[in-house]
Write a structure and sequence with these properties.
Largest sheet of chain B: 8 strands, antiparallel
Strand content of chain B: 15-25%
Number of strands of chain B: 15
Order of helices and strands of chain B: HHHHHHHHEEEEEEHEEHHEHEEHEEHEE
Strand content of chain A: 5-15%
Strand order of the largest sheet of chain B: 3-2-1-8-7-4-5-6
Radius of gyration of chain A: 20 Å
Strand order of the largest sheet of chain A: 2-1-3-4-5-6
Distance between the termini of chain A: 39 Å
Helix content of chain B: 40-55%
Order of helices and strands of chain A: EHEHEHEHEHEHHHHHH
Distance between the termini of chain B: 65 Å
Number of helices of chain B: 14
Largest sheet of chain A: 6 strands, parallel
Shape of chain A: elongated
Helix content of chain A: 40-55%
Oligomer: heterodimer
Number of strands of chain A: 6
Radius of gyration of chain B: 40 Å
């Protein structure tokens, strides 16, 4: 039997996966609903395999995976997601989980992925693989953010006005506007509100 | 006027003048006639007015000096007239010109005084006192000139009335400028900062029309306001220090065929907003004079303020729309997409169970119940989205009670919604947020605290909606030396609605107090 820990906060998903794994070679040891719970339970129950949702109430599942990769030995991980932005896809790929499955794909793909991962293979949902390729192409063609632009995005995220940003960076208000328009173009956001709301995800690129 | 008054005073006062009687009358008469002639020539001729300003000022000083000293010199009762050129300079120009005028007058006064000092009747004491008065008054006016602030012709409320639905900000700004300047027509061209303003709007008695140009009308001469006469190829502006600066109109602007013939003479002033810049042209101003150069700067600022205000309102609307869009996407992702994914996994589990011969009836019934419940959720979500009006508190409470019933079943918890019976209207966006907050609060109470009962109270006070969610769970986990963890996702949602959240958590009870503004919530 392969011991499994499920990390997902949605009750419908949890109940359904519990049913799906019944009468299989997988033993569901427990369920964590938050990133904090997940970190604790992974350390205490030491599962062979973790089914890890990317969107958790207190943090990202990618943060949990990042913390796990720092430990000497970690269980195999399959990322479960209902959808990821480009930046998250690229981060997830860099963290090299053993499997990635879209919750919206054919449900039979999850067990296929679990079987492959337990057999020592890497298994990525075909749709995720395609989206990752596209995201990588977009990231390669887009000019990278400069250090100055990243600083400016962080100040926008903090809710500072152009005048305050200019004072903070020691430039003129006009220069701030020029920077902002360049950032809008690079990140393909429409305005500073969208930039502020999505700053965390965009700057992680 | 002053010269005629002077002449009249001399005529009535038989003791004046004391010297050069014929010359004085002749000079004053010539001066009065010349002044009338100049006034007639510069009437509605801003170019000549500006051109003659400095020479006429010098003549004024010279003539008044001569006349004051021909009427008893240092004891002349017309000394007051002598200082009028000084006042004129202080009013019309800056401190430099006032200082120049003051110096000239003091030198003229002293010089004339010295010349007459040996004559009979010269009163040294009075001469010294008057010289002192002149110097003090000069210093006072120079000080005023240095410290004068730019005049504000308009107050914010003059152009702060709300923009009508579908009203064009350019038309509003241009219409305002035409009205206050008393112009027959005008044009406003603007473009994003750094680009040439080639597109514009023209407004006149004939109506409103837009136009496009191959090149900008004004060639950025470096002056923010000037008068121009394209037919005579003249233009004039006033430099910051008060001096006039003359140029050929063709050097500063080109009135092409896109504008009417009347536009060939008028006022051009710069418009500069946070993101745009351009030019405002006004023509057919009946009493156009050099005073309009400064007035034009204020007009430009007022038009810019109107455009800025409109841009700000648009940004607020765009921001609110972006927030609503992202928030809706998150709601759909968190609820509907997750539910459907879970349902698909269940179907897969049931399918596998069927192959192994398991009894499926109970699982199919459970799935059916969940699907029907979710259908209700989606229906209420769509209903709220489609609604084009705000909800009464009573309607909102009824919807929340229905949601509480579904959540009770979903989480096996006793969830109740109560209200204090207060009245008020709830914007649609806020009602959607309320529903999602209730979902998250109940989910947190059960997940984190193992609650069996959740009581929700809704009240309206001080234009704010107060939501209190109390449960009998074990509360949010807390480390020994740290405050209890906060419901992160719920807090984020409350902050997006510009509200505040307070958590009082302890063993056996958790109270979440949420306060949301009713007025600021976008529908």
């Amino acid at each position: 039997m392969t011991s499994v820990l499920l990390v997902d906060d949605h009750p419908m998903i949890a109940a359904a996966l519990g049913m799906l794994l019944r009468e299989t070679q997988y033993e569901l040891l427990g369920r964590a609903r938050t990133a904090a719970e997940a970190t604790k339970q992974i350390a205490s129950v030491k599962p062979d395999l973790v089914l890890l949702d990317v969107h958790l109430p207190d943090a990202s599942g990618l943060d949990v995976l990042r913390r796990m990769t720092r430990t000497r030995s970690r269980p195999k991980v399959i990322l479960l997601t209902a959808g990821m932005e480009d930046a998250q896809l690229l981060t997830a790929t860099d963290l090299e989980p053993e499997g990635m499955v879209l919750k919206t794909s054919d449900p039979s793909l999850l067990t296929e992925c679990m079987d492959a991962v337990v057999a020592g293979k890497r298994w990525i949902d075909p749709e995720i693989a395609e989206r990752t390729r596209q995201a990588e192409a977009r990231a390669a063609s887009a000019p990278p953010l400069t250090r100055r632009e990243r600083e400016l995005i962080e100040l926008v995220r903090q809710g500072l006005r152009n005048r305050d940003i200019a004072a903070e960076l020691g430039v003129t208000e006009g220069t701030v506007k020029v920077y902002l328009h360049a950032i809008f173009d690079k990140l393909q956001v429409e305005n500073r509100t969208e930039l502020a709301l999505r700053a965390g995800e965009l700057v992680s690129r | 006027m002053l010269a005629i008054l002077f002449l009249l005073a001399l005529f009535l006062d038989r003791t004046e003048p004391v010297r050069a009687i014929l010359g004085t009358y002749l000079l004053l008469s010539l001066y009065a006639a010349g002044a009338i002639g100049i006034a007639a020539a510069t009437w509605r001729n801003w170019w000549l007015d500006a051109r003659l300003a400095v020479p006429m000022h010098a003549i004024d000083m010279a003539v008044f000096t001569a006349i004051v000293f021909s009427t008893n010199g240092s004891t002349s009762p017309f000394f007051l007239f002598f200082v009028l050129p000084l006042l004129s300079a202080a009013i019309r120009w800056g401190w430099r010109e006032t200082a120049f005028t003051a110096t000239s007058l003091v030198v003229l006064y002293m010089g004339a005084g010295l010349l007459l000092s040996r004559t009979q009747g010269f009163e040294l004491e009075r001469f010294v006192i008057r010289s002192g008065h002149l110097v003090i008054l000069s210093l006072l006016l120079i000080w005023f000139g240095i410290h004068q602030r730019s005049t504000l012709f308009f107050r914010q409320e003059d152009f702060d009335s709300p923009m009508g639905e579908g009203e064009n900000a350019l038309a509003r700004a241009l219409g305002f400028a035409i009205d206050v300047a008393g112009a027959e027509g005008g044009a406003l061209t603007v473009a994003p900062t750094g680009e040439d303003p080639l597109d514009g709007l023209q407004l006149s008695r004939g109506g409103q029309r837009t136009f496009s140009l191959d090149r900008p009308i004004v060639r950025s001469p470096g002056y923010s306001s000037f008068l121009y006469d394209a037919a005579r190829d003249r233009a004039v502006t006033r430099l910051p220090e008060g001096r006039f600066h003359f140029a050929a109109a063709a050097d500063w602007l080109e009135i092409g065929s896109a504008l009417p013939a009347a536009a060939r003479q008028g006022l051009a002033t710069q418009v500069r907003t946070g993101t745009q810049q351009g030019w405002l042209l006004l023509w057919g101003i009946s009493d156009l004079s050099t005073d309009f150069i400064e007035f034009g700067r204020e007009l430009g600022r007022a038009a810019s303020a109107i455009l800025d205000r409109n841009a700000l309102l648009q940004a607020i609307e765009t921001g609110a729309a972006a927030r609503t869009r992202l928030s809706l996407a998150r709601d759909v992702h968190d609820s509907i997409v997750q539910f459907l994914a879970g349902a698909a996994f269940r179907v897969e589990a049931i399918k596998r169970g069927a192959k192994s011969g398991s009894v499926l009836q109970a699982e199919l019934d459970e799935l059916k119940r969940l699907l029907v419940e979710e259908q209700g959720e989606i229906r209420s979500f769509l209903l709220a989205l489609r609604r084009d009006r705000e909800l009464d508190i009573a309607e909102a409470v009824a919807e929340l009670r229905a949601l509480a019933e579904r959540l009770s079943q979903q989480w096996s918890v006793d969830c109740n919604v109560n209200t204090d019976g207060g009245k008020g209207a709830i914007p649609i966006r806020l009602q959607l947020d309320l529903q999602q907050m209730l979902r998250e609060a109940v989910a947190n109470a059960v997940r984190h605290g193992g609650a069996k009962r959740v009581d929700v109270e809704l009240a309206v006070a001080d234009d704010r909606l107060k939501l209190r969610v109390a449960d009998d769970g074990s509360g949010f986990p807390a480390d020994d030396d740290k405050p209890p963890a906060e419901p992160w996702s719920l807090k984020e949602r409350v902050e997006r609605a510009h509200g505040s959240l307070e958590l009082v958590s302890g063993p056996g009870s958790t109270n979440i107090l949420i306060s949301l503004p009713l007025a600021g919530a976008a529908a």
